[in-house]
Write a structure and sequence with these properties.
The structure holds 3 protein chains of 3 kinds. Chain A contains 4 helices and 5 strands; from the N terminus they run H-E-E-H-E-E-E-H-H. Chain A is an alpha+beta fold. Chain A has one domain: NADH:ubiquinone oxidoreductase Nqo5 subunit (Beta Polymerase, domain 2, 2-Layer Sandwich). The chains are: A alpha+beta, B mainly alpha, C mainly alpha.
Amino acid sequence: MERDQLVVDKVNEAVRDAIEEIKDFRGERTLYIKPNRIKKVCQLLRDEEALQYNFLSDISADDLLPEFPRFAVNYHLYSIPFNHRLRLRVRIEDPDKGPATMAGVWPIATWLETEVWDLMGVRFKGNKGLRRLFLPEDWQGHPLRKDYPLGYEEVQFTFNWEEIGSRKPQPKD
Amino acid sequence: MGIEQKLGDMGVVTYRLEDLVNWGRSNAMWPILFGLACCAIEMMSAQAAHYDLSRFGMELNRPSPRQSDLMIVSGRVSRKMAPVVRRLYGQMPAPKWVIAMGDCASCGGVFNNYAIVQGIDEIVPVDVYVAGCPPRPEALIDGIMSLHEKVRGEKLKDWA
Amino acid sequence: MTLATQPTSSSDTIQELTVEELRAKVGTGMEIEDAEEHLLLSMGPQHPSTHGVLRLLLELDGETVINVAPDIGFLHTGVEKTMESKTYTKALVLTDRMDYLSPMSNNLGYIMAIEKLLDVEVTPRAQVIRVILSELARISSHLVWLGTHALDLAAMTVFLYCFREREYILDLFEMVAGQRMMVSYFRPGGLWRDLPEEFVPAVRHFLDFFPGKIADYEALLKKNPIFLRRTKGVGVISAEDAIAWGVTGPSLRGSGLEWDIRKTQPYAGYEQYDFDVPTRTEGDVYARYRCRVDEFWQSMRIIEQALDKLPDGPINIDNPKIVPPSRSQLGQSMEAVIHHFKLWTEGFSVPEGYVYHSVESPRGEFACYLRSDGSPKPARVHFRTPSFVNLASLPNMAKGGFLADLVAIIGSIDIVLGDIDR
């Protein structure tokens, strides 16, 4: 589509070697962006007259464990005037040194980045409000990572009734 | 004709204390307004006009735990919510009863993972378990009626 | 102060001060003597008006809200992590339980993401049935919203009326899928089973009597001075703020921007139907209320067009690797037994890649980001839920208003805690 090509041209024109790779799959375009260029690219995408990606749908993170770099952060953008969706994907090696925060570009990003930190552990530079949102404050670990166990309880059948029953917590009254 | 025959001349009726108190408790049990998740919507449906809970004396949902005697835990209890449930249970004055409504409250339900307490009987003592995901309002009413039968069978020496 | 210690029995001592003197003594009563004397209140997880287990930390100055911070997570279920350990079809039942007021739209978002990955297009009959059920789910969700919102604003009869209509819709769902609320009726490749015969006449009957019921609700609320005073001009958010804060759905359409995913990026055949998107410009609670009530009418229009258009034909695509064979075939064909076995034990495999599909749920844009690594279990599922993002705009709307307005605002952004906490 011409708009897809327009995006790539504008980004290449304004921010040099930001795009690592372009992928098209099932009608969706994904731009792989270098982590240190992501903020400039996002500001360009929001402010440029011909592009106007003014709506941030979602920020989500992936844990690609056997592969390296391990983490990937997706930014799903949508341009309301031009009705066009775009995805930016940033590969991260060290979760404590994640991409810069997008809170200056789209204010909703603070909230979405906090969720990503809470469940996946990817820190965003400049976002001071990273705290436990879904989990209790003293929880250790980040559940959505692939090396975090599901934490399920073994089912009590008749053959292991006593064994599991003794480990189950009971209230005191 | 009925009760006047037993009254005699003095207008006095004798009754076992247990039966009288249990009758009073079961017919006017006020639930706490405690809807957590999807089962809460079925609880609201049970209280609305179609399946009416006010015929059991339960139309008044008290938001404050200090004024209620029944806690219907409707919905999944997460690890963050568990201390809150325990605290609310502690704030209710005796006599109090707990109905675990739905699969998530009875045994963890569909969710067998790090975030959900596998059955609230790990936190509070439960009187009646109602199965279903979510249980139909009729199932909830059946659970409430079982609780009423249980309350009517309580003995004097078991009272707190 | 003089008045506080006056005995109330003697009338001449109360009338001692003239009105001017009294006014001079009391002043406007609004001067803040000590700015640090704010009340910190936790509108706790168990509260009648928070529509679930939402905790709001409030900083109040008298009745005025200075600051509000939502504290969520009391219903966190770990749906995304649990779905990674189940096959695609088994994980479908977990999606119902997120936005539990309209489980159909959750199902639809997830199933359409799977179908996008599989690159299959469902049959026309399945598409029309999906549209009918999605719109019925929209109506039932808005009925609960209206009932609980009015209940918060002390109009209790509306609550009972709305739930009475909702019972009829839940009967329709039970007729089709066997479950009142958590229908997992949409399956990858089509639907679970075909519609029973009594469904279409029952829906037509619903479309006949429902306008009269909407008239009932409007009669109670539309010109009700208490309702209007409590909702007009309250919780205003401008369109630019709403876009910047990611608000979608009727909350955004109440602020002036006409964006509906069913119109801009249609899915499941929505482009064939003729309907409007109700939009208001004021951006207050009343505008959002009117948007949702007008959506009742538009949903009924869509259902009527869909019923007229309902084609005959198969409901599932003809791919035995994805769609389970029917029970009658299991007794006759060996391939059917093998496919059945494979689907039930291992599940179907999905090509590698990632997609993002969004649908218009009653609350806004519900989207599913699905990444597959070629195995029968999803590698990563992430749901962009509308209530989670809409809640972030709550401080924006509520600051500076009264505590009682906060209750109206929470009702108007229509949050569902299962959607927020997943």
